[in-house]
Give the backbone structure.
Amino acid sequence: MKIHWTKAQAKAYLLTYHNINTNQSMSIQSLFNRLHSIQYDPIHVVGYNHDLVCHARIHDYTLGDLDDHIYNHKTYIDHWDRIASIIDIKDYENLSFIRQEKAKHLYDGVLKTYQIDLEEYSKNILNVFEQGPLNSKEIDLGVHKNASWKKNSPSLYVLEYLMYQSKLAIDKRVGNQRSFDLFHRVYPNLSDKNNFDDLDSFLLYYLKRRIDVVGMSWNMTHNQLGNPFLTSKKARQYYFDLLVKKNLITEVIVEDLSYTFYIPTDVNLDGIMLEQKVSFLSPLDNMIWDRKLIQVLFEFDYTWEMYVPKQKRHYGYYVMPVILKDQFIGRVEFNSSNDIITIKNLWLEKHISKKDVQSYIDAAYERLIQYYSK
């Protein structure tokens, strides 16, 4: 059965699904139970992306809390999903097809360039790791060929290849540098078995997972549905329809929009209410991965300008959307130096009065300072 919503209802659903500006707090585990995956990004201004995603949903979250669970307790894995991501350890075996495809793509697209004996080269690298974990910069068995697009040692790419094959794992990060170790030492109770009988059953699982990651989706050509298999709109629609038939997702029609949207059927949002408060969202927050969806629902046009040449930026290098209850009210840019966060720039939407929203922005800023300085 299709659900018919107003735009206001669709916005309220998306925010309560992501637990942004609500009357409740999530735990790290409940966050991953719902979203499954958070994108990893090496840019650190007021925290890495995964810290900011947690901060927006967990009231008492402190900078680095998730890192402790990843690299010390090993309950989450610094690995790969749609992109470099933090995933729940219990999901690792479900993503075998993705790892196999990534390894094949890396070999065909890069490693063939170096014309190396991959089996022998991998064996040599694994032998080096028998002595213990090493930083990726400490592994260099020589440059075999300078590709026109990159001058680099093949060691870096073989490390990635071995990670996709569950031979190596990221043991920890020091800044943006990864330390690798043998997979079985980092995760002794985890295997690389494939939990699916065939690719078809995996794709059904994986598309549902992608919908869970963002909370609301549609069959558009955008990267939040990206994977090596469902590259065509027609192919995706087959699995959307099958998920609807199995009652794993529900179709949603939103007033004045000529699209069919899909939401997970099995999510209970009872008791979660929106509150009149402000959140600062990371540019790579799960809720705003799909910029087009945010534009049509919230009428907020957001572009992350980090990779835009400085002279062409409208705002700044690392600008975060600002949302008050269910309305995007502007953008903010922070500075962080000596453990002190300051607001460098604040741009409010044209129809927003600073006097009306200042107290909410101040409260969110104070919470950000507490998260950053503990």
The first strand starts at residue 3 and ends at 5. The radius of gyration is 22 Å. The mean pLDDT is 91. The chain has twelve helices and 14 strands.
